[in-house]
Design brief:
The chain is of the alpha/beta class and 424 residues long. It has four domains: 10-115, GTPase HflX, N-terminal domain (Rossmann fold, 3-Layer(aba) Sandwich), CATH 3.40.50; 119-193; 198-363, Rossmann fold (3-Layer(aba) Sandwich), CATH 3.40.50.300; 366-423. 44% of the residues lie in helices and 20% in strands. It is globular. The two termini are 47 Å apart.
């Protein structure tokens, strides 16, 4: 995995208001971009916003605005220019030609840089490297023209030979293929672990990065998850068996979401995000003290929709209520999201109410089912007592009739196992 560094570089942020966008939307997006830059170690020195009907196809901003940016770069002695949207390979190349002393990157590249720094497990490192290479592949331009015809140039079998850019692309594609295979193996191992805990009620913490998910995770489980006032402080999924009001559940904390999260990252972290899709209950943790909390909630819901998550699986948790200065913020949020639970993980406010809501969801998710077993399935009947609540057992002449109470999400698996046992 290749690494970059933005440590101590002075950065200038650039955004464009285009289409139906509002100036305030782009301003808010640049605030978030500034937080990302700071997390990566850069020093934000200024910003530039341009209004355009559409993004300039060659330069992202107009030619006149480029001249303004060049002057600002010289005045502020900027090392780095960060564009708020993902630049095309051509835009990056054209812009870099115009800026001799400053490096050009975009939001996606910046987020990838942060993910490189924070990836610690084999899985997260593999996922991030895959996302990096998928981002890099279309950007392998003819920057190496001086190295063309590196091999096979005089070979009759090799024809004109491979150019350096062709070699680079082939190597990158081969590496991408290898990383995808590695992730398949990791996903298989993760699926095996999931099956071993199929009978447990699963709760997943999701939310905007830095919303307080890890603090809640630590509060419930003493998991020791890193808690920092930074974006994407943790990338690895943490899963813990915890006790909530004398009920055992599985609680998982996953990577945080963010506005304009690069699609390469979402795709690469698909196996990690499976923990969310397969959860019985998803707690959407939102920092209510953040003025943009409603837009953060929209961002999270969009990602969950892409994952195929049903709204009935979710519960909004408004965190950091101890930091709210205007009580109208809390009353307004609860008026709009009536089922939401307001809490403070730091001050442990309303945690018992949240626990009660989790158990309420857990108990409402149970169904009663009647299974018909063969008399030869006594061993399977014993396992049912471990994986479900057996309400009644009737030994009839030709079969055993078993009435069980079980989580709806586990019912299909139990049905399959009962049929498989009959076959065996």
């Amino acid at each position: 995995m290749f690494e970059t560094t933005l440590e101590k570089e002075k950065a200038l942020l650039v955004g464009v208001v285009h289409g139906q966008q509002l100036v305030s939307d782009v301003e808010e997006s640049l605030v978030e971009l500034g937080l990302l830059a700071t997390t990566a170690g850069a020093i934000v020195s200024g910003e530039v916003i341009q209004k355009r009907t559409r993004i300039h196809s060659a330069l992202y901003v107009g030619k006149g605005k480029v001249e303004e940016i060049i002057a600002k770069v010289e005045m502020l002695k900027v090392d780095l220019i960060i564009f708020d949207d993902e630049l095309s390979p051509a835009q990056t190349k054209n812009l870099q030609k115009l800026f001799e002393t400053a490096r050009i990157i975009d939001r996606s590249s910046l987020i990838l840089d942060i993910f490189v720094r924070h990836a610690s497990s084999k899985e997260s490192k593999t996922q991030v490297e895959l996302a990096q290479l998928q981002y890099l592949l279309p950007r392998l331009t003819r920057a190496w023209t001086h190295l063309e015809r590196q091999r096979g140039a005089t070979s009759t079998r090799g024809g004109m030979g491979e150019t350096q850019i062709e070699i680079d692309r082939r190597l990158v594609r081969n590496r991408i293929s290898m990383l995808k295979k590695d992730l398949k193996k990791i996903e298989t191992q993760r699926d095996t672990r999931r099956k071993q805990r199929e009978d447990m009620f699963k709760v997943a913490l999701v939310g905007y990065t830095n919303a307080g998910k890890s603090s809640l995770m630590n509060l419930f489980s003493d998991a020791g998850v890193l808690v920092e006032d930074k974006l994407f402080a943790t990338l690895d999924t943490t899963v813990r068996k915890v006790s909530v009001l004398d009920n055992d559940i599985l609680l998982s904390d996953t990577v945080g979401f963010i506005h304009k999260l690069p699609h390469h990252l979402v795709a690469s972290f698909k196996s990690t995000l499976q923990e969310v899709r397969l959860a019985d209950l998803i707690l959407i943790v939102i920092d209510l003290s953040n003025p943009q909390y409603d837009k953060h909630l929209t961002t999270v819901n969009e990602v969950l929709m892409d994952l195929g998550v049903s709204e009935s699986q979710t519960l909004v948790v408004f965190n950091k209520i101890d930091l709210i200065e205007e009580q109208e913020t809390l009353s307004g949020a609860l008026k709009e999201y009536g089922d939401a639970i307001p809490v403070s993980a730091l001050r442990q406010v309303n945690i018992q109410k949240l626990e009660a809501k989790i158990i309420e969801n857990m108990q409402s998710g149970y169904v009663v089912e009647v299974l018909t077993l063969d008399h030869s399935q006594q061993k399977y009947l014993a396992s049912l007592h471990r994986n479900a609540e057996v309400l009644k057992v009737d030994y009839e002449e030709n079969h055993i009739r078993v009435e069980i109470r079980v989580r709806a999400s586990a019912l299909d698996q139990i049905r399959k196992e009962s049929q498989a046992q009959k076959v065996n």
